Amino acid sequence: MKQTQQHFLVLAFPVQSHMNPTLQFSKRLIGMGARVTLLITVSMHRRIIQKPIIDGLTISTYSDGYDDGFNDPSNDINLYLSELKRLGKQALTNLMASRSNQGQPFAGVIYSLYLHWAAEVARSLHVPSAFLWIQPATVLDIFYYYLRGYTDYIDGKSQDPESEIELPGLPLMKTKELPSFLQPSNVYSFALPAMDDHFHELSQEVKPIVLVNTFEALESEAIRAVGKLNMIPIGPLVPSAFLDGKDPNDKSFGGDIFCSSSGYMEWLNSQPERSVLYVSFGSLSSLSERQTKEIAHALVDSGRPFLWVIRDFEVKRENEKNCEGKEKKEEEGVNCRGNGKKEQKENPKEKETLDETVKEEEENQNGEKKEEEGVYCRENGKKEHNKANPGEKETQDDTVEEEEKNQKKNGEEEREGWRKGLEEKGKIVNWCSQVEVLSHRAVGCFVTHCGWNSTIEALVSGIPMVAFPQWSDQATNAKLTEDMWKTGRRVRVNEEGLAESEEIRRCLDVVLGNGETAVEMRNNAEKWKELARVAVKEGGSSHQNLRAFMNDLDC
């Protein structure tokens, strides 16, 4: 018997960049007449600043064992994922069984990245499931090829970043344009096994389904490149007010875990049309102080107004300053940091590791001191006293403490002056409503890390990009942006992996100039903006695809 109203269970991995599209997908289901229970961790629910109140949406929580955030001293993401799986499977089984016992089974289970175990649970209870892929179809194809027959081919070319990679149905790429998890410098051991688990679970399904945050016109070939994946484009997953306009009140994703700054919209209102450079590197990526200053010089030299999102400003500066010269743990591919965070070896761009996705960023400890000052560098940033001179311990402690205070004071004064100088030229905020900013008439260019959420939000808003990829899928997204969709220009880095201010300025001039290339980028950006809107409107490809998916579950 056909249900009068379908009820879906949707699972989101506990991080901002996963929460946004998953929550928006839930709203899309609700807009088509379904009910949704969104299952998230207790820690994620606690971090959401303003809990979403949406008719048809119920939020259910479960403990991942780290209700106050993942804060294991070893920073072992594999440990976290193992606990998430163990406790998540138990919670999911209980919730689904309870619904079934009440005669109200879920119509389907939709799970996002790193939650592949949800498919196993759903299958055991005879409930259909689908994988919600929140990156481009091209990236999923690349992972599939790598793990299903092309490992030796890709690894054989990995030492030369300029080597060309040919994969069926995909554009020609260079090694450096592949996801960072396939690069020799990758130290994130959890990523590829997790993807392999996803593909394994899909292979167990009679009718595997992958719902993709993209749209037909954008990635038509990539969507069909791997037939076994059965990818269904249902994006862009962006708030309705900035896309199809069906719900003008839907102006935000609704699950922010960062407090937005104030006054930036009023500031944008005071700026000329298409004049502002919007700069943001997302919720996970972070830059070294050197790179940040190169960007700052480029922005100031451009003479254009800018809005720059810089999170945890003081913490990041102190982290790099205090940790300079610390002993390296080369065998593990990490640096000894004041807070024990791992960083990619051979990659000068500082990144926050995925342990940051499950906890609030902690204050960095003041780290290294020389052995003659009586302390050793430890991976967790704790200080230990040199027992060789116990009689001098108290004096040394006082000296170290005084030096730390002076360094901190001097560093704070330097940063305060640097920031004030920047704010005379533009506006700096800790966080903002990005899709609202990108849709503002004053914004003319987006300097972005090319996370997929940011990339597709720029496409939906018709904003050209200066691509500044950091890790994960971002190099591939930058490749697509520059060469396939032709809506941006990627910055080139020097031998140290640093994008110099002159190079950044060159890209800004290309994108914002009046030359043929700039005009082409703006025209293409407008084209993709319109095509994205068409896709999600009534009768559009993404709208029809989602409707067909829902109808198939009722058969």
From TrEMBL:
PANTHER family: GLUCOSYL/GLUCURONOSYL TRANSFERASES (PTHR11926), UDP-GLYCOSYLTRANSFERASE 75B1 (PTHR11926:SF870)
Annotated spans, Disordered: 320-419
Main EC class the enzyme belongs to: transferase
Source species: Acacia crassicarpa
Record has S-adenosyl-L-methionine as a keyword: no
Protein name: Glycosyltransferase
Record family assignment: Belongs to the UDP-glycosyltransferase family.
InterPro entries on file: UDP_glucos_trans, UDP_glycos_trans_CS
